[in-house]
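Here is the promised in-class demo. Please do not try to memorize the tokens; focus on the logic of going from shape to residues.
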């Protein structure tokens, strides 16, 4: 009898303590949990990614690839990607997709312990108009961008050299003045090293392929810091479902997609 009473007292005491704990530290309401975008499956067994739906698109942590795939993605995947991006066009009028691997995604960038994230378009002079690659909405426009000094640039390169990969904030800074466009259907394009932003281009503005969004330059580069006219180019990126479009592609497939999408 005494043992049963002790057990009853113990159970009641335990329940009382648990109630007190939950009152002090309540479980979060489902209303407090950010909604998540659908998980995206990638070919080749790549880990899926989900992005909090309530965070502005331009502030989300875009997953960055470590390099080109060693095994080709299935033809069906490449064809579907080309079809999905078929609404895009070359943002520099008259330019062509480069063949040189160093100007294409996945090329090593040893000076910052990273890889190239986009396509570099060289040739036209500083100030050449840059057009939106397709219809969408501006989600970032660095109107108040200020070029950093030589000392500042060397400091962040030193930071990158000491890391195993280029930190996101360092890479963003090295990209200079930028414009980002959200095209819907999980597609974002980014335009970097701009010399200036076109008048009226602000976050929230709707654009199309005939809209000038900025002008070709070299901001964020060593030439830009030196106020030189050299090294002028557009760095152009395509993001699909939170990933660089080329994440699961070989170099040959990268060229195939870019030429199919950006060649008139």
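The designed amino acids, position by position:
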């Amino acid at each position: 009898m005494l043992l049963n009473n002790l057990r009853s007292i113990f159970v009641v005491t335990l329940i009382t303590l648990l109630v007190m704990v939950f009152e002090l530290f309540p479980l979060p309401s489902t209303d407090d949990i950010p909604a998540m975008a659908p998980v995206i499956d990638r070919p080749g067994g790549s880990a899926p990614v989900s992005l909090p739906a309530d965070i502005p698109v331009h502030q989300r942590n875009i997953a960055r690839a470590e390099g080109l795939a060693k095994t080709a993605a299935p033809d069906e995947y490449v064809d579907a990607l080309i079809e999905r991006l078929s609404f895009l066009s070359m943002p520099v009028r008259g330019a062509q997709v480069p063949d040189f691997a160093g100007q294409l995604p996945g090329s090593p960038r040893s000076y910052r312990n990273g890889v190239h994230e986009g396509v570099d378009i060289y040739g036209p002079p500083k100030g050449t108009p840059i057009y939106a690659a397709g219809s969408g909405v501006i989600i970032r426009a660095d109107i108040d961008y200020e070029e950093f000094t030589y000392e500042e640039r060397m400091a962040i390169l030193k930071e990158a050299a000491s890391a195993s990969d280029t930190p996101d904030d360092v890479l963003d800074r090295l990209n200079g003045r930028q414009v980002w466009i959200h095209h819907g259907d999980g597609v974002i394009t980014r335009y970097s090293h701009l010399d200036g932003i076109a008048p009226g281009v602000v976050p929230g503005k709707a654009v199309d392929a005939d809209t000038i969004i900025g002008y070709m330059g070299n901001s964020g580069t060593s030439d830009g810091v030196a106020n030189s006219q050299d090294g002028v180019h557009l760095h152009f990126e395509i993001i699909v479902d939170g990933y660089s479009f080329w994440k699961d592609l070989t170099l040959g497939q990268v060229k195939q997609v870019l030429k199919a999408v950006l060649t008139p």
